[in-house]
Amino acid sequence: MFIASVVVSALLALATAFSGYGKLTRNPQVVEPLTTKLGVPERLVPVLGTLLVAGAVGTVVGIWWAPIGIAATGCFVLYFLGAIITHLRAKDWPGVGPTGGLMLLSAAALVLRVLSL
């Protein structure tokens, strides 16, 4: 169970670090849809990027220290739930799928980390 937890946590950390990096560097391909399609204020984009990178670090640290991993992956479930709600409110149906996938990956990492205690 621990190996599955490590693999899923690593995938989650890579995906969220990559997404967070795009937000922190204000990549136009990342920021433009957030601000125009979803209505996210531009001042919040670096905050979202910081949350993603911090969560990625917490997920990796959580491989060795379970409480941090459980907290990080639990927060990711909430983060992506909020992102799904944002996509739904904006009627951005194509954006719900990938975001839902990341939420499911977060939930899987959380469950596997708890089960590998």
From TrEMBL:
Transmembrane regions listed in the UniProt entry: 43-65, 70-90, 96-115
Entries under InterPro entries matching the protein: DoxX (IPR032808)
Keywords of the record: Membrane, Transmembrane, Transmembrane helix
Principal location listed in the UniProt entry: membrane
Keyword Membrane in annotation: yes
Subcellular location: Membrane
One Pfam family from the record: DoxX_2
Membrane topology listed for this record: Multi-pass membrane protein
Name by which UniProt lists this protein: DoxX family protein
